[in-house]
Amino acid sequence: MPTRAINELLHSLSHSYKSALRTGIKDQQIPLPITHIRALKGIHRNTNCTAQSIAQRMQRDKAQITRVLNELLEDGYISKIANPDDRRSQLLRLSDKGMKIFTQLNAIEHKANKAMMANLSDEDMRAFIRIGNTMIDTGTAQ
């Protein structure tokens, strides 16, 4: 029988990971709120990224995302280019400044992952990933 309920374990795991990321972001003096960071990551991952796709991915109101994107644009973290498939929208890209932050974020995530996996064997990690994916797939199917 587990010593912790699954909801407590998942909450603690998520909290621990987010705390490690926040510490890394603070240590690296990244001057952006989490919403801005999530938007940068979304832009990097999606080559056909638009404001609408970011709003959907982040499950936020388009007006809120537009404000975030305008701030990122004003601060030089992103740029906009014409969307060849839709004249009504623009594609978003990371600028050099945005790419520098993205690279720092990757290093922070790698460090947090490494620390959290330090006492786990490869077999443990494979099992964790398999179980986690099964739980995600089951949870989204309902």
From TrEMBL:
Q: Which UniProt keywords apply?
A: DNA-binding, Transcription, Transcription regulation
**What Pfam family is a match, any one?**
MarR
> Does Cell membrane appear among the keywords?
no
Taxonomic lineage of the native organism = Bacteria, Pseudomonadati, Pseudomonadota, Gammaproteobacteria, Cellvibrionales
Please verify whether the record's keywords include Transcription: yes
The name this protein carries in UniProt is MarR family transcriptional regulator
The segment(s) forming the HTH marR-type domain are 6-137
Listed InterPro entries: HTH_MarR-typ, Tscrpt_reg_MarR-type_CS, WH-like_DNA-bd_sf, WH_DNA-bd_sf
Q: Which PANTHER family match?
A: TRANSCRIPTIONAL REGULATOR, MARR, TRANSCRIPTIONAL REPRESSOR OF EMRAB OPERON
Q: Which organism is it from?
A: Zhongshania borealis
